[in-house]
Amino acid sequence: MIFTKNNLRLGLALGVIGPLLGLVVIYFIKFPSYGFKEFLEYFVNDNKLITSVGSLSLLANVVLFTLYVNTNRDETAKGIFILTMFYGIALLLLKLFN
Description:
mainly alpha, 82% helix, 0% strand, single chain
């Protein structure tokens, strides 16, 4: 199974997919009346939403990271951590320059 592998590439892939899935889940739970494109525009332009939704979407990576660290698959966890930091910095820059 793919989730039992321990390599950096898998971690990077999961690190990209996790927050995106988190964002989609938040969209369906909190903003179902918006179109997805409208939601993304609202997300990018509202500083409060960048902080709250951005942080919640990163929780998906926290769950994945914890799972891989606790099962001693450190290379995969490293990839997830790298992308989590990348997303966090991107959210911070988006908030600062918005």
